[in-house]
Design brief:
five-stranded mixed sheet; alpha/beta; 345 residues; globular; 13 helices
Amino acid sequence: MPTTTKKTYREALSDALALEMRRDPTVIIIGEDVVGGLGGTAGEEEAAGGTFGVTAGFAAEFGRRRVIDTPITESAIVGAANGAALTGLRPVAEVMFMDFIGVCLDQMLNQMAKFRYMFGGKCDVPVVIRTLMGAGFGAGPQHSQNLYAMLTAIPGLKVALPSTPADAKGLLATAIRDNDPVIFCEHKLLYGEEGEVPDGEYLVPFGEANVTRTGSHVTVVAFSRMVHLANKVADKLAKEGISVEVIDPRTTSPLDRDSILESVEKTGRLVVVDESDPYCGMASEIAALAATEAFASLKAAPVKVTPPHTPVPATPHLEQLWIPSPDRIERAIRGTLDSKLARAG
């Protein structure tokens, strides 16, 4: 059995990056403040290592040719990463907040996602875009969005959403080794989350969901930070004899449809908890999957637990009301156990 060490989500990401950079000299890091000098003694390679310190100290170990600070220009960061990938490097580019993909969307939508198709499969595009997402940090509507559903809708991109430190390490290592572009979505409220992380090389395959709680009465599919809230509710309801199965897809593209359908066919009920928009989001996608491919097994209509269709509020107390809560998840689960209430929405 592999040994493990308790680490935070942040430390697990840093561990994966460092291990992959030591293993493969073609892996580079590029982005705003990924070095981020702290203004120490002249000549020292001090580094803040990004907004949350994930790459702190990397410049000292790997040098400025592999850890590259850039101006504040997301289009240039992602464009440079695209070019680097086409010439044989494996860039890990950081778009500091997911909200800023609007600035570089063309580089993602019309370039990296389509290179392999446009060039007849003759090139690899091993780009990883690390980006921060999620509400609850008081960062306002332009720094708190969850846009992974929009990115999932782009053919040619892979999208990963780790919810635990172990998955953060394993999925990031897999992303770096993948020959296709990967959008790696990190929830900012998870950076301090602690958990056991395998030591040394560790990979988590894409397209394989994690069943975090097993159950027989209702299936809950949750993404990123919402997995923790769903687990909390499942543990509470288990004390009352309500058996909740919680599924963390871990990647939305590819999506482990089989595991979701197998669970829904077993329980006959589905609740989807998604911090992204209720329109055209992953909650709608999973509900549609169950309704079209497991309809005969459903004992109640699928239920979505999402924020409202509004920007993320800047006011802290409104922001907390906006985010799906354990109470809302619990009400949805109890509601779907009563088929009449479930059908009433």
